[in-house]
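FIELD: query
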Amino acid sequence: MKIRITLFSFIIIILLFTKLSNAQENSEYIEVSDNLYLITNISGGNVAFLVTRKGIVVVDAGSTPSNGQKICSIITSVSNKPIKFLILTHFHGDHINGIAGFPQDVIIIAHKDLAKNNEIYNKKNIDNYISNILPGHLVNLKLQMGEIKDKNSKEYLALKKDFDNNYEYLEDIKNIKFRNPDITFEDYYRFKIADERIMLEYTGPGHSSDNVVVKFSNHNVIHTGDLVFKGMVPYLIIDHGVDVHNWIKTLDDLFKENILTVIPGHGEIGGKIILKEQSDYFKSLSKKIEILKNSGLSLVEIKEKIDINDFDMKGNENQFPINIEVIYTQLVGKGAEWWEF
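FIELD: result
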């Protein structure tokens, strides 16, 4: 089982760290609260930014250098204040690979393990994607194009568009440059800029071993990073420190706090009810897995038995069997009492 999960993990790593460029980079921004904005970043995780009289604080950097540049362009269209701080919610590439698009003097804040995790999990995979995977894919596309005589056919034009998009994407990710955070912390980090108070909290492993929640205290707004995938199946990667039980506890604890608005890592902004919805998904799925396991079913049989249509999820459906496998593995490893809440 461990080998299979590792293979799944490698595939997911590629998906997380390398957003295929044939998906358009459309981004919009909305004002969540006074001077606090959300960029709905289709090419990466949701980005928040807070404008203060002393500068701008940004949460997450986007998926590629050009995506990071686009984020900065949107921000500067709203305010001419300098971008002073960049907070990283966790190490996954769709949240940090855009760092090179930000000003060089921006102060980066993250959990103490983020740089280590990036070195272990991101760098080699990105290098392999640049050196082997994408060039091989481009060669294959070129061969397919060469076999088509009619260069005006829909098939040829579709392949050419795919080739051009992937070539552009390859050139983009060659510019990825990770910067070690300037400020790191273990449990909490609080800072004040102008009249704004911001708190970063590490609540233990959940989506990853370094995921942090960003609280905009003056606004009763939080950015959860990928602790919340609003309305879609979340990514679970055991190798990255996922802990579903602590993830649930974190969401339940946050739900008890005086929070007005939640900015999820992916999906639409919402009230704090979306914290409960994410928690309820895990609890419901975990209970189904536990009941079926106790009835003697194997993991393969459990995957066949549980229907994704029982859950109100649209997006990342291919991750649902992996969700089941990860929860099953943690349930077996830690015992049924692990799930008592």
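FIELD: remark
The chain has a mean pLDDT of 90.
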